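pinging the channel bc i need a second pair of eyes. not urgent but kinda urgent?? the chain im working w is below, pasted from the shared doc
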Amino acid sequence: MWFVLGTLGVLAVIVGALVVVGHFYPGSSADLVDWKPTRSPEVEAQNEIDDVRQMLEAQNEIRRRRGAPELTEEELHAGVAEDERLRMRGRGPFEST
């Protein structure tokens, strides 16, 4: 019984010490653990734009091989908006009507 209480007490002291150090540390939490983001938000946004462009080009390549008309970016955005509306209504695009 005393061993369990002692273990819990030591654990509580350690957690309490970490909370006190984190509270009184003059910098941010990221500075405390020396954390730096790997990429800036601007780079992340540009990567997303590039990914969408590459996926659209790949999809259009497949559509050209099939003889189907190519998708424009506006048509892609309209399709995504429609899928989002269906999802928000609680019905997925693959459910029967």
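so The helical segments are 2-24, 29-32, 41-66, 73-88. and Residues 41-66 form the longest helix (26 residues). — does that match what u expected or am i reading it wrong
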